[in-house]
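Review form for a predicted model. The reviewer records the input and the model, then writes brief findings.
Reviewer: anonymous (R2)
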Amino acid sequence: MSSIIPRGRERYLSDIADTVRNYHQVTREQADVALQLQQLDLTRTMLADRESFDAVAAVSQIVEEMSPKLRPDVAGALDEWPSIREQYAGEQLSYSVRGQEIHTPLVRTTLSGSNIKRVALPRTSDAGELVKYLRLENLPGYFPFTSGVFPFKRMEEAPARMFAGEGDPARTNRRFHYLSAGQPATRLSTAFDSVTLYGRNPAVIPDVYGKVGTSGVSVATIDDMRDLYQGFDLCSPTTSVSMTINGPAPTILAMFLNTAIDQQFESFREETGREPDAQEARAIRGRTLTNVRGTVQADILKEDQGQNTCIFSTEFSLRCMADIQEWFIQNSVRNFYSVSISGYHIAEAGANPLSQLAFTLANGFTYVEAYLARGMNINDFAPSLSFFFSNGMDAEYTVLGRVARRIWAVAMRDRYDANERAQKMKYHIQTSGRSLHAQEIDFNDIRTTLQALCALYDNANSLHTNAYDEAITTPSAQSVRRALAIQMIIDKEWGLSMNENPLQGSYIVEELTELVEAAVLQEFDRISDRGGVLGAMETGYQRGKIQDESMLYEHGKHDGSLPIVGVNTFLADKDDQDELTVELARGTDEEKESQLRRLMEFEQLHLAEAPQALARLRGAATSGGNVFEALMEAVRYCSLDQITQAFFDVGGRYRRNV
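Model under review:
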């Protein structure tokens, strides 16, 4: 895989680790200089009051000699701080996001009449401590974005995502409408069945038929995609769609974007009663691609390391990911993330929070290096990268987001010379599925609540809360509603949620942040010693480490050294346990047969166009063209499996290194 990362760049992760360590060294040095200058200034003032003019002159000489040691950016930040404090002391603050002026209140009032600051500021007057705060923490929305990438949370849109995927597209569509009813924003997260995840079509083959529509929705054609999101305006600023799919992600993404474009064409026809002309069609298409919001997972590196739904060769999958990103840049797709770099599945496979964070960030920087090697500009593609983490019960999860944001921001600015938009890491949190247990499943909501609180305190950009019965089956409508209510109660009822930076100023949070960051940087060095992420994958390093950590967890769970309430401690007497009946959610025979029939009708309808579209797709792949551009046409005539087979022909199948 040496062609993906250029020769000489194999130690990029150690370079990043050194960049972050150097940033902290400069912070310590600058804090000392700022404190000494402040002390000298106070001393000079006291001596002047006593008219000790010779001593004043001597101190002034020392100040003059030391002042150049204070970096201009640090001096400027210290000079600007009083005015920032004054702005945040008022009742309202105005700031700009993408050229739009936003006015937001700074205070919320409790029922008792107490005024709670949305953002609390440090009260220190110590210049050294202030330098540390400004360079290590800072306010939300300010570099290094430790406490959040935006100055304030959106007041009109909660970070909740509505996760669904079961049966055929019609059933999942009904679940989406059920979950989003009455909500100010529609954030849909989509789970696909294993047949779709492996790029296959529904079929009567024994090892396929039973999996159709089970543990996810069955999608094989663009018609399925249209039905899946029927009734949702995919270009609305309050709608976003996340799709959890990796191996066949380019094909599914092409189906989705075509669906969004077709929606807007249909709206034009309804409004005007005619077809758009060529110029109008180009404008509709361009406007759609600019406005559509969402994320496709498409993280092939973590698939090899943790989740195992790789279908194409790693080289070809990475090439397709880069093609998607290039196409996004060329078509001004600014509000849709081309990849969701996922630690969640690494954690679900058994990794502890330190490995989850380190492997995920390392994968993210690998995509950065690969895209730079393709000639893309860092400021064009870095804002299209998003992240996805698990929140479990371990202490380190308290600071996972703030550590990730700081490492990413420092590396982007100081190592890659990226602009501010590229420095801002946006990430999604899902509460831990691994922490859900089949025993005493009612206790699972308690665990999920604590994990959700942790995510919201750390300013996650979006959040999905798992349903308590997911330890056994695909969640029911009732359990999903309870799960969604968890974050709504935290957001709307929990008093401290009035404040948006509650972790800042805590000694233990600061100490945990330093510990976790140091561990991540150390892991970067270990991966670098193995040739970077791709070199480490060839030796199975990440998979081996995940397996070791999973075994440690299972041993602790089994022997009781890791207490889990209701599982290995605080066990209920058998006589006291209520009998629990949980209906297992499965795709029905009617849904399976419907999918088979719809697939056959689609392929029959496009018998003439499909071979030509597939030929153009193979041609783009073998000639160095943009595969995703050809996919945008091919999905209109070809089913998922037809495209997968074409990619097997030109890109090769995945083979695990042993």
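Findings: The chain has a mean pLDDT of 95.
Further findings: Residues 21 and 144 are 14 Å apart (CA to CA).
Recommendation: see findings above.
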